[in-house]
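Structure (tokenized):
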């Protein structure tokens, strides 16, 4: 069971990684300043970290 939860956590990390890269590409192509993109990506990474910690607490 814990292996399944661990796999799900890795799967979500991959999904969030792909989603964040797509989001950053869209934002960059939209002409947003690089500093704004860094702030958005940091906020996004922070939320991903919180989700990762909460998912690891399930085990």
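Design, position by position:
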């Amino acid at each position: 069971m814990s292996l399944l939860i661990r796999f799900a956590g890795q799967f979500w990390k991959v999904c969030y990684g792909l989603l964040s890269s797509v989001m950053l590409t869209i934002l960059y192509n939209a002409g947003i300043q690089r500093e704004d993109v860094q702030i958005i990506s940091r906020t996004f990474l922070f939320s991903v970290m919180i989700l990762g910690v909460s998912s690891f607490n399930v085990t």
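Reviewer-requested clarification: The chain is about 85% helix and 0% strand. The first helix runs from residue 2 to 29.
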